[in-house]
Amino acid sequence: MIKEEFIGLKYKGVKSVYDLKESDDLKTRIGWKCRKYQNWKEVHHTQSDKDSLRKFGDALVDQSEILLDMLGDVNLVLLKVQRWRLDKENFDVDPPNRKEYDELKVLIGNVREEKQFIISYLVEKGYSPNELKVDIQLLFYILLLKNYLESVTTVSFPKTLIDTIINEEIFSSFDQLYQDHSLKLNLDNEARYVIQCIYEDLGFNIHYYDELNIESDIRLEKRKTVVEYKKMSVSELVNISTIGHSTLIKLNENNLYIKKILSSNNESERMRFEKFIKAIAESYLDLNDHQDVLDTFLSYLSLKLNDEMRRK
Question: Which parts of the chain sit beneath pLDDT 50?
Fold first, then answer.
């Protein structure tokens, strides 16, 4: 579960601290929205949200100041407003992720599917894993995190990440991320655990393997597929996109047919279904000149599947 203060680093529809800091005009616009939303009880999470929204909005409009101690509560409200726009009854459909967030998700998914992806990624980035005198898995996850945060924040990172050890300055940059959100990062823990905690706060789970074969790597040219289930609008069955060498497939768990598969707890049935969906995704990407037609077809298919499931 992503930390409330970091919501703006994930979703397109919620502005981050860094977005606000760069534009006084944006501060004013968000401030007026907060003043408006203070009276919209349906998007509140707690009774204190009305007061938080008023104070947060007033500070943005009148002093161009971001009240970081209220950021998490305000972000939850702003996210719920985005959900209302997509699902006015249940507030159950998340807005789109930032492209950079999905890119990070795919890279982490690649590691779950094939642990040697870590070696291939480092080789592609110009490292020689068998010559490194550092924790290779730690280096990999730091590189992913650094690249992601450089694209969605203004945190300054060291240009040289490693020599014979991982540069401690990188942890100062991660600490700055937390300070920018009035949060505390415990740097007294072991390095692997610190990085794992940062990923968890951003909504990811990472895994360290007992061992890697640094002499072996997989070909990154081979397209990999990452499948995830998320709540989407009723007219969506599947969302297919390409990120680097990977295909990201998002399946709508609000679709009644998919919901039935997930609720059956039949792993073999689920695997067969995902294999079928992967074949659809490959065909979809091969026919890239006709994707508008295919999008219409998949939308229509989603509605028909829902209708068929209701008749049963």
Answer: 164, 221
Which residues, 6+ apart, have CB-to-CB distance to 293 below 8 Å? none
| 104/216 Cα distance (integer angstroms) | 23
Beta bridge partners of 229: 251
- pLDDT tens, position by position, 170-192: 899 999 999 999 999 999 999 99
288/200 Cα distance (integer angstroms): 35
239-264 pLDDT tens trace: 888 876 688 899 998 889 998 888 88
Q: Can you tell me the distance from the alpha carbon of 230 to that of 284, in angstroms, rounded to the nearest whole number? A: 20
Domain locations along the chain = 4-86, 99-201, 224-311
Nearest to 34 by CA among 66, 94, 78: 78
Rounded CA separation 298/312 (Å): 21
The secondary structure element, H or E, covering residue 227 is strand 224-230
DSSP 8-class letter at 229: E
